Amino acid sequence: MRNHELGATVVEAVGLKTHFKLGGGVIAALSGQPAKTAKALDGVDIEIRSGEVLGLVGESGCGKSTLGMTLVRMHEPTAGDVKFKGASITNITGSKLKDFRADAQIIFQDPYSSLNPRLTIGEIVNEPLHIHRKGTSEARRAKVREALSHVRLPPDEFEHRYPADLSGGQRQRVAIARALVLDPDFIVCDEPVSMLDVSVQAGVLSILDELSRDLGLAVLYISHDIATVGYICDRIAVMYLGRVVEQGPVREVMRRPKHPYTQNLIRAIPNSDPLIRRDRVTLEGDVPTPINTPPGCRFASRCRHVEQICRDQEPDLLSAGDQSLARCHLYGVLAAKLDTELRLKITSGETT
Ligand SMILES: Nc1ncnc2c1ncn2[C@@H]1O[C@H](COP(=O)(O)OP(=O)(O)OP(=O)(O)O)[C@@H](O)[C@H]1O
Ligand code: SF4
Ligand SMILES: [Mg+2]
Known about the structure:
Blueprint: E1 9-22, H1 26-30, E2 36-49, E3 53-57, H2 64-71, E4 79-84, E5 87-88, H3 94-103, E6 104-107, H4 121-131, H5 137-150, H6 155-158, H7 168-180, E7 186-190, H8 198-215, E8 218-222, H9 226-232, E9 235-240, E10 243-249, H10 250-255, H11 260-267, H12 308-312, E11 318-319, E12 325-326, H13 340-347
Parallel strand pairs: 3-8, 3-9, 6-7, 7-8
Antiparallel strand pairs: 1-2, 1-4, 4-5, 9-10, 10-12, 11-12
Helix pairs in contact: 4-5, 4-7, 5-7, 7-8
Bound molecules: adenosine-5'-triphosphate (ATP), iron/sulfur cluster and magnesium ion.
C-alpha cells in the first residue's frame, strides 16, 4: 500500500453527467419510438490530487471509461463541471483547450492498436511534441529520451526500434512515455494492464506508481479488477450505474468495504495475490441498465438489505466511518433500525 504526502487538487468533477442519445434515427422517428438516453454518468463528484492515484472500479458498463474520457474532454458533459487546477475546463476552446489537452493525457488498454506500426519508438514519443510545436528538434529529442528513461526503456536500445519488435508490456510503456512527454499534470489510465500477461503487469504498475510520486502526477487508474487497484492506488472510488457508491482510502475500502455492492466486489476476489489475472466480476441479480435507471437506490434490485425507503429515495454519499463515504441508507435513515450486532457486521465489511 502507498504511503506518501499528496499535493493540491488537480482535477475535480462536480455533479458530472454524460448522457448519450441512442437510436432516434429516421426509422425510429417513423415508427414513433421515443429516443432513448443512456445515462452513462449521472452525477459524479470526485477529486484527484497531485501525487495521488485514484482507483476507479465497477462492473462493465458502469461508466468508468466515460468518466475518464469526460475528465479529459474527449466527451462533452451533459451537465456539471470539470475543474482543472481550480478552473473550469467545460467550455474552454482554442488555445486554452489545446493547452489543457497537453496537460491531461489518457492511456488506453490496447498497446497493440494504439501505436503507429510505421513509426519508430522515438518518432511515436516525439509526435505530441511535434503537434504541440514544443522546443527545437534537439530539445525534443532530449525530451523523448528522458520520457523513455522514465518508463525504463533505455533510449539507445529502443529509440530506433519499431512497435512490432516490442512486447505488449514494452508497447504499453511506450504509450506511457508518449503521454508523459508533454509534462502533463493528469493522466487517465483506462485498464492499462488488462491486456498484458500477468508476468509483465507488475512492471507497468510499478512505473505508474513511481511516476505519480516522483513527478507529482494526478492519476485516475481505471480497472475492473479491484485487487490490482489495491496494489497501486491511494484511494478507491467504486461506481455503479453512473454514480460513485463508495469512496475511501484504499486500505479501508479493501479491508472494511462499506457499501453492500463493494462488499460483493471484494468477496468476489478469488485469490489474495493482486497480480493474478482475473475475469470480469459477474455478480448475481437483475442488473438495471443506464437507459432505464430505477428510482431510489440503483443497487436495490440486488441488495439483500433492501427496504422500502431504498426503492423510494436515492441515498446521498454518507459518511460511513474510517474516512469512507457510502451511498447507502444503512449509514443514514436505516442505521437506527439495525440491531447492534448486524450494524457492526455491515460496517466492518463482514456481511452483504
Ligand atoms: N459513445 C457512446 N454512445 C452511446 N452509449 C455509450 C457510449 N459510450 C458509452 N456508452 C454507454 O454508457 C455506459 C457506460 O459505458 P462505459 O464504456 O463508460 O463503461 P465501463 O465502465 O468503462 O465498462 P467496461 O468495464 O466494459 O469498459 C454503457 O451502457 C455504454 O453502453
Ligand atoms: S440503500 Fe438500501 S438497497 Fe441500496 S445498498 Fe443500501 S441497503 Fe442496499
Ligand atoms: Mg471501459
